[in-house]
Amino acid sequence: MIEFNDFIAGFGLYAGTFIFCFLSGFIPIFNAEAWLVAVSAISPLHVAIPLIILSALGQMAAKILVFLAGRSGRKIPAGKYKDKIEQTREKFERWRGRSDLFVFISASTGFPPFYVISFLVGVLEFSLLRFAFVGLAGRLLRFGVFVYFPQLFKIWF
Fold first, then answer.
1. For the chain, how many structural domains are there in total?
2. Nearest by Cα to 66 from 133, 137, 116
3. Domain range holding 27?
């Protein structure tokens, strides 16, 4: 298993953060939030904003691929899941006008899981551009919290 310091030494802080967060967008064992807390704890404050931006971009690059998988999945006959997908589509239609808020809440809080929502909105033909921008806004907020939290302890202690 690759260790934290080896990963940073191999890729550098910024590229390592982007790559790690990209991988975490697909593989749950790569925890972006834990990575950001650890990196922020050993980094000076002036790297906080680049870390937030790169982590959010890495995650959204992965989530866009998940979204596109959902989009291509809608062309496949759904069989026994067809009714379930249609029920979900009807529920999502009721969120029209608020669907951006739903995606933002998922991206910023992780509930419902953003991985699932990324796939689902692809299946439901949500706009890719809207998904990318709203999801990015949510991820920036979420990752900002995880990057700045350890920095507060540096200030206080």
1. 1
2. 116
3. 4-156
| Distance between CA atoms of residues 32 and 7, nearest Å | 14
The single residue listed with the structure tokens 């298993």 is 1
Smallest Cα–Cα separation from 41: which of 147, 157, 142? Answer: 147
pLDDT digits (tens, 9 = 90+) for 6-49: 778 888 999 999 999 999 999 989 999 999 999 999 999 999 99
Helix (H, G, I), strand (E, B) or coil at 145: helix
pLDDT in tens, 40-53: 999 999 999 999 99
Question: Cα separations (Å) of 14 from 11, 25, 39, 94?
Answer: 8, 17, 10, 41
Task: Take residue 40 and report the two structure tokens written for it.
Answer: 């922020």
> Do 104 and 132 meet the contact criterion of CB atoms below 8 Å apart?
no
- Structure tokens belonging to residue 101: 């808020």
Amino acid at 27: I
What six digits make up the tokens of 18? 């982007």
**The model's pTM:** 0.87
C-alpha separations of 107 from 47, 64, 74, 84, 144 in Å: 23, 12, 22, 23, 12
